[in-house]
Amino acid sequence: MDQIKIGKFIASCRKEQGMTQAVLAEKLGISDRAVSKWETGKAMPASEIMLELCEFLKINVNELLSGEHITMESYHAKSEELILNLKTENENYAKRLLHTEAYIVVLGVVASLIMIIVGMMFALKNGDGDPLAATLIVLGCLIVVAAAFIGLGIEVKTGYYKCAECGYIYKPSSFLKILKTAFAMHVNSTRYMKCPKCGKRGWQKKVLTKEEC
Hints:
By secondary structure, this protein is an alpha+beta fold. The chain has 8 helices and 5 strands, in the order αααααααββαβββ.
């Protein structure tokens, strides 16, 4: 979505309705600074107030997210274009999250190894009873565990797993199943797991949407 275009459209519609930023903000129960951020393209209206905003501006949500008035002749085409753009943005966001997961895990492992190695060096130098050595080793272990769980949380919430046998696309539906996912054999984000539909074990490929083949 073009936030600059949407922001200019909000400003134009607001002026058409004879409202200042302060008046519109008061009607929505927000600050006029928030309205200013919308109109300059620095932010988007929150989803929970979009319908109310559209009501005050005398437009519909499709027009708001398109940043222009839509005629009846082009309404269907604009709706499809908007849906496609939202789908693309969601997929790109999911990809960024998965990249973030990889960075978190790698940085967590590196930081953990450094702390554990330094802790062991202190232990060798000062003896096993050195409190600093013990603290560094414990912290190193905690960091790698925390990074692993954060990474797993991002991966499970982002996208789906696809069964190689029956093609069923799903997400782990309980905390226990998420833990099983954590300990499953895996190569990158592809994991060797049991399909909840066909019951067969196999490599479950990571997909970003349920529409992926």
